[in-house]
Write the structure tokens for this entry.
Amino acid sequence: MPNLIQAARDQVAQLTQAAYEKAAAQGLLPAGQEIRGTVEVPKDSRNGDFASSFAMAGAKALHMAPRQIAQIVLDHLELEGTLFQRSEIAGPGFLNFFYAPRWYGEVLGAVEADPEGYGACDEGGGRRVMVEFVSANPTGPMHMGNARGGVLGDTLANVLARAGWSAWKEFYVNDAGNQIQKFALSIHARYMQILLGEEGFPFPEDGYQGEDIRELAQAFYEVHKDAYRDAPEDKWMADMSAFGLERNIPKMKEDLRKYGIEYDQWFFESELHDSGYVAQTVDLLTQKGWTYEKDGALWLDTTRLLKEKYIREGKTREQADKLELKDDVLRRANGFYTYFAADIAYHRNKFEERGFDKVINVWGADHHGHVARLQAALDGLGLDGSHRLTIVLMQLVNLLQDGKPVRMSKRTGKAIALHDLLDEISVDAARYYFNNRSATSPLDFDLDLAVRQDSDNPVYYVQYAHARICSLIERMREAGAQVCPAREVDACALARPEELALVKTLAQYPEEVRLAARDFDPSRINRYLTTLAGDFHRFYNACRCMVDDPCIQAARLKLADTVRLVLANGLGLLGVNAPNKM
């Protein structure tokens, strides 16, 4: 899929080089010099669409003043049949280039050729990437933090697929370990309180206190009555955790499906333990000399691994030695493996067993201390975790209503569940809002703004642009005007600044997709769509589509329809609908 802005940029470099070589062959410039000028987009469009610094970059090598070089190069430029109609000298010796109508026509044609695939590139080269996201403990309902991580991960995987990666979406189910024990303890306590009264059985101080735990206990009681009143701990622990997971995990899948998220795989931590893969992974680390025993436990020499990692990344040995680092337990004295050991095994599975070239995890910012440690452990296994594993750390969501923050606490059961949120606002609004800022920025989610139907609501603003175009096309169809193929449109008819700016924004989309994939920042797509919608609204207000001149009318209608296609394309990446009416 062509990136027509990059194609034009490359052509500027080719044209200036060819002009230099032609002038050198005539003896007007010294021959054989390698000149590396830049080609940039000027801040002020009056200075052209691209500015080349070729003349200034070559001044020293050519022993001439930049403007003199620029004039000679300008005199030898051959623009006939290129993407540019003219060039001029500006400032200390910039060569400014201005698009020809042909370029604007090619943009319209590129979108028309593949509306759904427009913006695609081969940045990923077909390499396999896994995006693991949400991966919430299955001990309670999905909540607001999961809502942000869900749309960030889902949209990032969509963007990576568009950028040429073979993308895989995965949810890691933490169905083993301390949180599952706490889950079972909480259900058991509520179950016993049903039998003995709340005063008759203590609830664990650190137990899960949400209403969902009470509901699970009640459901368990309705099935088993008092059969578990005197059951041994290992019996009720196993059965109550299984009972809760069998009900919670389908609810999680249902909530995420309602949110527009479908995973390629739900991977269960318990499978790693049951298959012996965690133990095998820890044994491998021991064989490679990265573990030691102390106080009956097996420890990972994280300090040494991290120092080696930081030295490879450019720190000196002295700098690395000054870092305050600590080691991690892999296997406790009681023989149980830690969550960190399971996490290392899980990521080894991603790379070694399933062959992913790249792994991206979307985590909450509170996990930042875990990032380098996990990468270093994978380095210790020879899997190059420092380069192949990327963690996108997601900042918190501040929920606002009536201009005031809504307090949330998962431990006390006052968290706002995802399914409750989606009862208040549309899936489109939620997905757009939660992806509207980069993961590294805190997000204020205004519930009141999310349901407003005006231009202050960003998703409404973009969707309205799409619906407005659909309405325009329908009105013009009723008046006898049809959208023409790009080859039948005279791009020279697009001459107003609002028209040209709109085509340039359309051409920017492939680059935005590429950068969003490169930087693991899908919020770039939101910002682009807001810009495109704004440029369309300005065009719509300044340039009437239904005019007497058939050439201008055809060009403007085609331009509007092309914007419609790209808006739908971008909204599709976000998992947001592109409505025909609003």
About this structure: The longest strand covers residues 166-173.
